[in-house]
Specification:
Among the domains are: about 90 residues, Roll (Ubiquitin-like (UB roll)), CATH 3.10.20.90; about 80 residues, CAP Gly-rich-like domain (SH3 type barrels, Roll). By secondary structure, the protein is an alpha+beta fold. A five-stranded mixed sheet has the order 2-1-5-3-4. A five-stranded antiparallel sheet has the order 11-8-7-6-12. Strands 9-10 form a two-stranded antiparallel ribbon. It is built from five helices and twelve strands.
Length: about 240
Amino acid sequence: MADFKVITSDFVNLHISTSKDDISFSEKRFPKSLNIADLKAKLELMTGGNCNTMQVEAYTKDNQLLCKLDDNNALLGSYPLDNGMRLHVIDQFQIRNELDLGNEPKFELTDEEYAKKSDSVRAFLLKNKLGKYNEENQVKKDLLEAEEKKLAEATVIGARCKVTVQNAPSRLGTVMYSGPVEGLSGYWIGVKYDEPLGKNDGSVKGKKYFECPDKYGAFVKPHNVLCGDFPEEDYDLIEEI
């Protein structure tokens, strides 16, 4: 009897989202041989979260919680992840900052006083070379942001564009905004799509960046936007009998 082997890919394509906002990052390709600690380091560069404090949850294509990636030594391939699923990054610092403290008085230290503490989060990160205190990761993050800024500054407001995200159909639209978005890391391009295929009306967390109808607006990374001669298509609705 012949032997049959099930051959699986060495990589998995996953969507990324964060607890910081309702904007998802474009799908990313990760090697299954990556351990969770290294995965978090990559997610830190991508999302701006802190790899030492973040929690990572995996969701199915139906948006159901599948599992938590809480073993830093485990390999990504040891989790039951398939292409098209989503990793959700939760930043504990952010959750703490968003707590409603009401009228409770806040105890604050100056930067100089805080730097002298040996039991602070900063001291721990500095000692273990984590987060922004990891020089190699910080250099990579700075280079990525510099590249994003260059692309964003070269993107002309009002230009026609095509947005291409991996494993998703291309969408046509018009560039409406270019620059940083409050609460998000890096630089973003605000696009008004020709069809209601977006996620918002040009607003993020109540702040308006450009005008467009609801579901026509989206914010995407500069490398996903190609400007050019893309005429607006005619989407006349035909009444069916």
